[in-house]
Give the backbone structure.
Amino acid sequence: MEIFQIEKITDCKYLNLFSIQYKDRAKNIKNWVFASRSQDPDPLNHGRVSADAVIVVPFHRQAKKLVIIKEFRLALGSCQYGFPAGLVDPGENIVQAGERELLEETGLAVTRVLKQSPPIYSSSGMTDETISLLFVECDGSPSNFFNEMSEEIEVIMLSREAAKGLISKQDLKFDVKSWMVLSMFADYGIIS
Amino acid sequence: MEIFQIEKITDCKYLNLFSIQYKDRAKNIKNWVFASRSQDPDPLNHGRVSADAVIVVPFHRQAKKLVIIKEFRLALGSCQYGFPAGLVDPGENIVQAGERELLEETGLAVTRVLKQSPPIYSSSGMTDETISLLFVECDGSPSNFFNEMSEEIEVIMLSREAAKGLISKQDLKFDVKSWMVLSMFADYGIIS
């Protein structure tokens, strides 16, 4: 396949649509639309190595519990269970961004980094968004003192039994990453 | 938080941007842009229960290997390692869509469904897209005979050792779901 033109078709601040013209394997000219957080998205920028956002998978060491958050998500118009997460600020590395987001969204402090993923793609059929997963141990008491005005966050600490109970409930909304980690934790007691 | 208006700001066939006006906790009026595959996206449609797409996590029973695909992704302008996946067609259930996509993209046949996730959210900070993960056992020989003209797919069968090798390589691009499953498979020999 050959990409020969990319056009930006919206002019928003944080998220835009781009249209790609390409030739498929039969040499037909076709069109593909995707969303990007970047003004200079991936098809033009193959060497990119930094992630748009960090997702923190926190395990509370003293309580021996997995930490998740229940958060109002505008795109869903309702609450979703997921992990503390946010965009990486300019000049921050993934660990710094993860420490900041965990504190802002839960009041908890990172005590040890267990594992860090490279930048990985959220859903490449529709976007070039990348995230890094940061598996950490943390400590402290949950608090929403540091929440922003646009955030409505409830911090939940889960034993393996509680994770089993939560994930089996119908009608709850889960993020992909949280569902996969909860599923592993519930079935095997493993987080990372 | 209170959503009081949603405006569709593009007119594309498969993916659009929507702008939400809402009041934050301090009653300030703000704006949030998200992408949706739907003409009738989630904030207007709380009761939605079907997934936009299926992601198949296939384990080849005879070979005792995890199956992944290396696929050219237009949004990245390069190849990515991920799982067979695709949109759920009207009238299909998740298992039917998964069986079809696995056959189209790899030539392999589902022999047993191991686990199915509910609809879960890909990246709710930017989209209401939902997927269902379908963990299956499969059989047959890999083939790209059924690939569409817009698909360029290489099927890869991985032992646990091969998964360890692949995931440790820098500069390769992975989808979130494939990285998480590969990581668990490499570290613990567990897939679902």
